[in-house]
Amino acid sequence: MDRGKGLARSCPVCLGWLVVHWYRVCDVCRPWARKYPELGVCPRCRHEAHLNTDGLCKPCLTAIRAEDDAEWALGLEEARPRPVQLTVGGTYGDRSVSSRPLRRPTKNGLSVGAEWWTKLRKQRADPTGPPVLEAQVRGQIPLFTVPRMLGDATVSAIVGRPVAGWEQARQVIEAIESEHGMSVGWRRKVAEMARLALAVREAEGAERLPEAMLRDLPTNGDAVRLVLLRAGLLDEAPEPLRFSRTDQPSRTPYISSPAPLPPRSPRQCKDCYAWIPTENRAGAVCDPCRHWRERTGRGRCRRCGRDGLALRDDRCRSCHPYRLLDEARPASQRFTQLVISLPTGKGGPFEAIPVRGREVPDYDERRPALHTSRRQEPLFTIRRDWAPVLARLRRAPAGEPPLTAHARHLVEEFTRDRPAQRPNYTKNTRTLTILLYWLGAHTAVFERDVYDLARIDVNLAAKPVCQFLRIRGLLVEDPALHRDSDQMWIEATLTSLPEPVAGEVRTWVKVMREQGPREGEPRAYNGIRHYLSRLQPTLTAWTTTGAVTSLREITKDQVEDAVDAVSGYARRGLATALRSLFRALKRERVIFRNPARDLPVGAIKGIPKSIPSDLLMGLLDRATTPLGRLVLTLAAVHALPGKEIRTLHTTGLDLSRGTLEVRRGLLRHTLYLEELTHQLASDWAAYRHHRWPVSSNPYLLVSQKSAIDPDHPAVSSGTLSRALPRGLTLSGLRQDRILNEAAESADPLRLMRLFGITEQTAMRYVTAAHPERTSKLPR
Hints:
By secondary structure, the chain is mainly alpha-helical. The protein is 40% helix and 7% strand. It is built from 30 helices and 17 strands. Helix 6 runs antiparallel to helix 7, helix 12 packs antiparallel against helix 13 and helix 23 runs antiparallel to helix 25 (675-691).
């Protein structure tokens, strides 16, 4: 089967730069991503990736075995983070052996092989210790440079190590010593610093040490500069640098020294701006441009506008390959691709960029301002401002922006996958069209860009587009957008509180999430948010008007005053939250005593209420949709709360047996459907299959959005409320049904079996229905 040419890009799993066919993930990493779908931060490389059972990513597992990294293989606490080597042009060979889990199952659980302990003992017994200023491949230009921390420990680590260029430097040091009568101590100190500088040169992989790096030496930087200059091992700066902090006498030999010839270094070609390797000696022009000059005349390039260049067809060598593209798609601004001119051994003419098809739309006014060539990944990414893009599209002629064939195919596929979308509902399609028009169809789209685009225009949508691009491997997800909304609200609320109160409340949140020293069932962020929303006004009042700097200062009277200031359900909620807060702080030993220890919470004094009969009359006739009629029956006949109605599963409905299974955590409650509910459930199942035949949402009740949402969410509570007749609520219908049954039977056990409620709830309804049977008799 023909795999095609593929695209050169970086695999997001192994971080290797290679040719990828069809998918964004390479062939070797695709099974890994399917086997370990959960994302996390690898503790070794600090990169977010798919982690295996060892808690490590695939590149780190390969590096551990390739480098015999015994510390990380054994998972020692003192192991420090490690960098991951960038691989370019990797093959599709089998790497399953190097990326298999380190810990294997044994009789006593998971363990690491004994050979790693042997390697660790050998490494720690090695007198050389860990590698210091390890030599790198020469000729590579670093993308980023950082200052080094050099000291006596670094000098001791390289003692006895053979350093390239030391013999030339030693001869120069001896010559300077005899010439100027320097002492033996001066010679030894300068020799140490010279060896250290040469070790830095090897660690940088440079032919000559850049003069600016001598600043990292502890002492004698000026002397080392003179030594390396005479030995021909220093890349001199345009202006001589001074490294001594004090003024030196004029007789010092290393202040004024003859400057050598500038060393050979990688530079840009004068004509095509391509980077030329160090070995090139033909001036400031690369070899292809030198031959180009010999066969053509000079003039002004009509594409880039530079003058004095060798031209062919009125174009310079850099612009000549774009002649076919310019004829098919004229543009006002022209750019050329940055080239690194490396010897590849490939000869032949300078090929033009081909253009598929001559009939293309007019790009004079609607062409994107920045045109990125195919198969090119950005080196740096910044957050985009989409406002100028939308303003440019509004000024353009009516109609959709011009798209490539592949981009049009993606838009058609997106529309075909959403058959239930209304014809006039073009939010999602327009968003995808703008993204593909501006960014192209061959480049992965950042999730942040999609949301930034949709945020500035109400007629654009982000979530469906992100889901579509994610399924096809064209989306770079942003972890910040997938954080829990309740967690973000909690963090924002804690930020508004002053310290140290915010830190103390943050400790309570940590205990509620059971991230402290004691184990327990973790509390969800929505429950913590409910508690914190009750606490926020009280905490704000204490820290602003009460001049409280810490919760240790809170007394029992202050807690009681805060609770007595509210009533009803608000008082009960505040009391419960305060008891939880101070109990957790006392357990973590943040406060010395618990001021809310004996705080009474109080009981629920309200009684359930029935619905007037005039509102219940003709209830099913007022529900106009199959969804509304089924929701009414489940709430008014079977007394299901709204949360359970939303989370009913299609697998729980068994029409042949007439049952409906309700999931309540790990428990299951079975409803036996009577004739009316059975008929309405059957009508809804048939309606759903006819309306959304390809929907894979596992929930029984769906809406127009949730039915085709790839994330399979449950139907919202607002959708259920809108399906009910005006004046009715799900909680009111449920209370009316249980209260009516309690009035008929007065048996709490029957209510518990029929509706699956607790004994306290059953007694509340029996008490409300028959107050004369449960009232206390006078003594």
